[in-house]
Automatic annotation (TrEMBL):
PANTHER family: HYDROGEN PEROXIDE-INDUCIBLE GENES ACTIVATOR, TRANSCRIPTIONAL DUAL REGULATOR HCAR-RELATED
Organism encoding this protein: Kiloniella spongiae
MF annotations from Gene Ontology: DNA binding; DNA-binding transcription factor activity
GO CC terms of this entry: protein-DNA complex
InterPro entries, A to Z: LysR_HTH_N, LysR_subst-bd, WH-like_DNA-bd_sf, WH_DNA-bd_sf
CDD domains listed in its UniProt record: PBP2_OxyR
Residues of the HTH lysR-type domain: 3-60
PROSITE patterns, per database record: HTH_LYSR
Keyword line: Activator, DNA-binding, Transcription, Transcription regulation
Name of the protein described by the UniProt record: Hyaluronan synthase
Family: Belongs to the LysR transcriptional regulatory family.
Length: 308
């Protein structure tokens, strides 16, 4: 006899919490009911999924393999259910959007009001995380789509470019380069460059730019956010690369920091959407992209280079 969807859902929660009482509370069932369903699942599969003692619960090796497959199965089932709910209307129901912290806060304010007016029934759940973590969460079904800097590492994920965004150099107000209108790349040679930590696309780009310009990336002083980087620059600890939308939102209000464009059209980043290639909601996601582009064209087309 095959396992039921409910049994797999129960197993997934127990495997994540490794605690029957906490899992039962999360699932709103009694602990004996949960335990019986896990035992029944193991019986139907003919394997032991969990090692249990009086004080601990651990996944067996085969249990870890089954958990990975269970996550993908439940992810695809949720996709199917979400698609069925929205089949009669474009962009309804629930949409789980993962956003990079270097993108979302400085882009979404231009987009969300228009989306809400156009799709009042859309429930948009937004979660911020580093680009590398967003990509993993997209694969496992925690997000329906993600908004982040491109490219992604996983080529099986479908990506759609929204725009190209120039990167600017953030300088302390008394830096020698603040007197120039544009920063020549060669003038950054030997400069101490601050960046975000590993896992951010902006960190990888800062590495590449420092190698190209001969600048000195300060690995010992990684910022946890763009705001932290800006404050470190303002204290004279170095210079940094900032996306132009962040400059517009925050640096223009900071008297301690000056942002200058770089005299090279190549210094930019791509920002886009990504989703699983086998998602049944592709038409919705493409519509989501078009709605974002319409909103951006009206409000910030002079700041970024929109796709299409």
């Amino acid at each position: 006899m095959k396992p039921t969807i409910r049994q797999l859902e129960y197993f997934s929660v127990v495997a994540e919490t490794l605690h029957f009482r906490k899992a039962a509370e999360q699932l709103h069932v009694s602990q004996p009911t949960l335990s019986d369903q896990i035992k029944e699942l193991e019986y139907r599969l003919g394997i032991v999924l969990l090692d249990r003692t009086r004080h601990t619960v651990e996944l067996t090796p085969v249990g870890r393999e089954i958990l990975d497959r269970t996550k993908f199965l439940l992810r695809d089932l949720n996709d199917l259910c979400d698609h069925a709910k929205t089949a009669k209307s474009m962009l309804g129901g629930t949409l789980r959007l993962g956003v990079a912290p270097t993108v979302g806060p400085y882009l979404l304010p231009y987009v969300l009001p228009d989306l809400h007016r156009a799709y009042p029934d859309l429930k948009l759940y937004i979660r911020e995380d580093r680009s590398s973590s967003l990509e993993q969460a997209l694969r496992t079904g925690q997000h329906d789509l993600i908004l982040t800097a491109l490219p992604l590492e996983d080529e099986s994920l479908r990506t759609e470019i929204l725009f190209n965004e120039p990167l600017m150099v953030g300088l302390p107000k008394d830096h020698r380069l603040t007197v120039t209108d544009k920063i020549a790349p060669q003038s950054l040679k030997g400069e101490a460059v601050l960046s975000l930590g590993a896992g951010h696309r902006l960190y990888e780009q800062a590495q590449d730019l420092c190698r190209e310009f001969g600048a000195d990336l300060q690995d010992d002083y990684e910022g946890t956010s763009l705001d932290t980087l800006r404050q470190m620059v303002g204290m004279g600890m170095g210079v940094s690369f900032f996306p132009s939308l962040y400059v517009r939102s925050e640096i223009t209000k900071d008297p301690e920091v000056c942002a200058k464009p770089i005299a090279s059209k190549a210094v930019k980043r791509q920002v886009g959407l990504a989703w699983r290639g086998n998602s049944p909601r592709i038409k919705e996601f493409l519509q989501f992209k078009e709605d974002i582009l319409v909103a951006l064209k009206q409000k910030i087309s002079h700041e970024v280079m929109l796709s299409g």
